Amino acid sequence: MSYENRYSYIPQTVLITGATGDFGQAFAERFAALGCRLVLAGRNERKVKTLASNLESSFNSKIHSCVFDMKDKAGMKAALDALPAEFAAVDLLINNAGLGLGLEPAYECSLEDWETMISVNNTAMVQMTRFILPGMVERRRGHVINIGSTAGSYPYPGGNVYCATKAFVKQFSLSLRADLTGTKVRVSNIEPGMIETQFSRVRFKGDDEKARKVYENTDNLHTEDVAEAVVWCATLPPVFNVNRIEIMPTTQSFGPLAVERFD
Ligand code: 8X3
Questions:
Q1: Cα(102)–Cα(105) distance, rounded to whole angstroms?
Q2: Which of 3, 107, 162, 215 is catalytic?
Q3: Active-site residue 3, yes or no?
Q4: N or C: fewer beta carbons within 10 Å in the chain?
Q5: What is the pLDDT of residues 20-40, one digit of tens each?
Q6: Is there a domain that residue 262 lies in?
Q7: What mean pLDDT, rounded, does the chain reach?
């Protein structure tokens, strides 16, 4: 059986937000290897163009680069309106752009960090989905894969708004399914736990030492592991909708609920 024949269904045009991030690059590589056309969205033009040209030379892929900031709704809309015809019929949207900022308690952390997380993880994600969805419904072909987090189900100290944004992503994904009954459009929420990426470096604002400690002295999962789950969902036969997948390294699990005790 050839590599491609392992798959029951292959999306034709895949739009990935946050394409130059660790997850984004891993997803882009896997879908490029499957021969999909890719729309790579990111805000750093040099990084988007470099990723595009690497994938073009490795996989001979057809790639369209979109450069805009997820917080810029007009820029997002303009980039989507300007998609060349051969990239316009997006049949897989991967809402991957997102970030965690800070790990301080709710009464001490930065309000601006909260606003940024809500803006990227939620507002921009729903805007992108709303722009792309009508075409999928009209063509009766499409799949929205959201990158949620185990943080959307299991709160932890300092997770405050990050956890809340990912709970929103989970419930939005499930609610979309309710609206999309009868349209043949699929929705999946992929919910990674601790994965060794730049996530902690961003969360700790470049404090490499703090970020490194998150992943030290344990066995970690990597971006390819999450990409495997995304590709699995996206290449199942159209009748098969994966609602949610939670992924954790075996080394990560659950702790007891906190109880305040008095002396
Ligand atoms: C990132 C996973 O556990 O750091 O979404 O919140 S976690």
A1: 9
A2: 162
A3: no
A4: C
A5: 999 999 999 999 999 999 999
A6: no
A7: 96
